[in-house]
Amino acid sequence: MPTIQEELDRRQLLYSLLMPVMNLYVPGMDKGKGLYFLFVKSETKTPGGLLARPVLTSYYKSDHFKTRPHDPYNVYTSPNEAILCPDSFHSMYTQMLCGLLEHKQVLRVGAVFASGLLRAIRFLQLNWAQLTHDIRTGTLNPKITNPSIQACMTRILKPDPNLADFIAAECSKDNWEGIITRIWPNTKYLDVIVTGAMAQYIPTLNHYSGGLPLACTMYASSECYFGLNLNPMCKPSEVSYTIMPNMAYFEFLPHKPNSIGATRPELVDLANVEVGKEYELVITTYAGLYRYRVGDILLVTGFHNSAPQFHFVRRKNVLLSIDSDKTDESELQRAVENASQLVLSEFNASVVEYTSYADTRTIPGHYVIYWELLLKDYSGESLSDEVMSRCCLAMEESLNSVYRQGRVADNSIGPLEIRVVKSGTFEELMDYSISRGASINQYKVPRCVSYTPIMELLDSRVVSAHFSKFLPHWTSERCR
Predict the structure, then answer these.
(1) What superkingdom heads the lineage (predicted)?
(2) Gap between the Cα atoms of 452 and 432, Å rounded
(3) Fewer CB within 10 Å of terminal CB in the chain, N or C?
(4) Which residues are CB-contacts of 357 (< 8 A; sequence separation ≥ 6)?
């Protein structure tokens, strides 16, 4: 997305409002620190030579972040050297280590997305023994070879056997329920995005935090920063964002999902939206986007003075999302077709029907695709695991670069899984849906499922499960 230097000033203004609002609900946040897991991602250059990088990477590498003035309400346990380290393992390890060293000073724990915070908890599960060794001895893990981090940690790390014993005692227990408040006992809330696709992580966050409040503080995207939540301690299902009219010029397209063939309605200005109606967000930005359709569907819930407030309903047409990835129906269809043409055609086989869901029970989460196969030359229900793993990889190769970066560089998405179901399974699915009131004339196979009885039906018909055994292609030209 195009941006300009002055846009960082505008976005910094929105950041500066978050803690003053939070302090109205949780006073005393200037008495401690925030444990936030923040990361930079790979940069590339366009064919014309322009720098291309994720919006948060752009912010973290700017002087707005690196040379920010001291603010007692915005002190992080993570040093800049760790946040700006391009190696994700080195960065995560150091940020977790610093968070453990200052465990009593931590008043809030967060990440950009809920999935990112859960990856950090999983990282602690896998690495607590080495982390406690570092704390006990006052020496840094020799695997951390980044010179900036080494120099920084030499100043910070001192032997603390008592703290090491405390952390080891908590992490060695089989039950990790409430682990966040057990290790960081003064934590008041979790600062993560849990609206939209991230809502699927709420039960897991509640498990690890012991039910701490989940604060969704701001509404933003790569294209534009939109607004903030003036009631950040409300339930995630009740979150409404107040649009900041100085961020961009906002217009709204009335959303009527069932109006097939109807003429497109006229755009509505920010001041003229109506409570209870859904709209698709349209923006004109200072950086050059003109009447750009963001793809977010918003519901007007009320007003703050004269400023309308919106509840994020969903991303338009998005089926699957684990982290920052967004896969829509057409992209999923193309991936299935490519896997069928590249692999299954060799064996005179094809996909009869398919559906999907985002499995977040594992960390990291992964895509699950249910396939019903037509095998013309085979008597069984499925092909060999080697063939099906090739299908998994072919699907991943067909998905967008954000998904592939999550798989290859960020480790934020697990290997794609294909579950082959018995012949006739999707007819049973249709019968079930019709028994629940669906019209036999208008029934279409859902390309994404989340309703528990339907998933139980599908899982009960699985004859084999297969994972992608290799990473899809993704490269990044490092900017020097």
Answers:
(1) Eukaryota
(2) 13
(3) C
(4) 320, 368, 448, 449, 450, 455
Could you report the per-residue pLDDT of 274-284, keeping only the tens digit for each?
999 999 999 99
Helix (H, G, I), strand (E, B) or coil at 348: coil
Integer Cα distance of 249 and 281 in angstroms: 11
Any idea where the domains of the chain sit in the sequence? 32-187, 225-315, 320-467
Where do the H-state alpha helices sit in 230-358? 329-342
Quick count: other Cβ atoms within 10 Å of Cβ 353?
Answer: 18
How many CB atoms within 10 Å of residue 459?
13
Q: Could you give the 3-state DSSP secondary structure of residue 376?
A: coil
Look at residues 250, 351, 355, 370 and name the one whose alpha carbon lies nearest to residue 310. 250
In tens, the pLDDT along 93-106 reads 999 999 999 999 99
Euclidean distance between CA atoms 232 and 239, whole angstroms: 8
Question: Which range among 11-15, 75-79, 337-341 has the greatest average pLDDT?
Answer: 75-79
Task: Give the pLDDT mean for 74-78.
Answer: 94
| Cα distance between residue 201 and residue 315, in whole Å | 17
> DSSP class of residue 461?
T
User: Which region, left, alpha or beta, applies to residue 383 given φ > 0 means left and ψ of -120 to 50 means alpha?
Assistant: beta
How far is 115 from 322, CA to CA, in rounded Å? 7
Question: Cα–Cα distance between 129 and 112 in angstroms, integer?
Answer: 26
Joined tokens for residue 82: 């760790």
- Rounded to 5°, the CA angle 175-177-180 comes to 120
CA distance 167 to 136: 10
In this predicted model, what pLDDT tens digit does every residue of 288-316 receive, in sequence order? Answer: 999 999 989 999 999 999 899 999 988 88
Tokens at 430, concatenated: 């249709």
Cα-only R_g, the chain: 24
Predicted TM-score (pTM) of the model is: 0.80
